[in-house]
Write a structure and sequence with these properties.
The protein is α/β, with parallel strands linked by helices and about 270 residues long. It is built from nine helices and eleven strands. The strands form two sheets. The chain has a six-stranded parallel beta sheet with strand order 3-2-1-4-5-6, with helices on both faces. A five-stranded mixed beta sheet has the order 8-9-7-10-11, covered by helices on one side. The longest helix has 13 residues. The protein is globular and about 50 Å long.
Length: about 270
Amino acid sequence: MSTTGTLKVGLVGWGAIGRVVGTALAAGEVPGAALTCVVDNRPLGGAAPAEQVPFDTAIERCDLIVEAAGQGVVREWGERTLAAGTDLLVASTGALTDEDLAKRLLEAGPGRVRFTSGAVGGLDLLQAVRALGPLDEVLLTTTKLPTTLEQPWMDEELIGRLRSATEPVEVLAGTARDVPVKFPRSTNVAASVALAVGDLDAVEVRVVADPHAVRTRHVIEAAGPHGSYRFEVAHTPDADNPATSGVVPYAVLRSLGAIAGRPGQIL
């Protein structure tokens, strides 16, 4: 925290998530936090309500960097940010399926790495349950529109199935170690669940394409000797970027409020 008591925030990415977060910060909607600068690889002109600067400059000026631009930012800049003594709030948790990167980030400092819940709930309870012992099974089923799931690695047969689907189609099944790498902009939730559970291999993930999916749906089912748990959320996709849910920037803002010390915040 700066000596003035106001958290100086640098925002990386002026897309579907960044625009909402940056606009709210600039309007003073997060008490105790202020937007200091914006980093983006495109010239923004006057579109952003703060100065656009290179990443190195943002690290020097800010107490906290908010990543809202994809997993590549975490890989390229995460350690450098933390080593400079600046905290990092990660939205693209899928980057942490790289265990070597995750280990380096968690060991780096003096800056601290933080995560946001993004488009899913129940993570705090899963973290609490984890203290009782390992869960026997954890299953995440993510359902999205087919167009948001097409990826360069897909063969023509699979892409054809997605584009011609008239009912739900299972696109991929695997663990939280494997799936977020295949869908870097669509399955960060899988990594978030794994971070809460504490084991990438313990979380089974199914990705389903549904042409009738008006909302993006995430269902978490977990069970162990100490209980069973089920969480289901269904979000309206972001209008500008249907691969992400419209609630994600507000989850980031909630996390910023908690970091800045907003009174009454449930952590």
